[in-house]
Predict the structure of Biotin transporter.
Amino acid sequence: MHSLAKPGLLRPALLALGGSLAIAASAQIQVPIQPVPMTLQSLLVLLVGVAYGPRLGAATLLLYLGEGVCGLPVFAGFRAGPAALAGPTGGFLLGFVPAAALAGWLAARGWAQGVWRGAALFLMGHAVILAAGCAWLAGLVGVERAIALGLLPFLPGSVVKVALGVTLLAALRGSRRG
């Protein structure tokens, strides 16, 4: 019997699907501010990058974006379709791909070890997402409004998500030892 699937692709495909579903679930945990809701997505995006590495992490986020563009209600507020990428949230969503890749790249180089390096990893990942989101939003509403609407409200939440990310990494390291 000849299989069309290449050996060794099932596991990464299942990981990518599971990661995309976890990110979709985290998109629904939100503080509904306008024009961009605050969600737990960025934390999951960076954790997927750390856990999966740069290539599979980025591929997982491309899968997630593809699911949403194709009409699956995976974006915040169960939104779907290409309009979600064209609107105010588009830059944040697109920024997930390089952020996951960066987190995976840094983790592969030991940045997920220890509190300070882990915090730096999560801060850099959030910086990528916020920069992409604000740049996109600036094209829609101008630079000053983009900073007011797409950066400043997200800074306290990003700090909390950095702390959660570092705590989760420490807990995972501890559970592997025991």
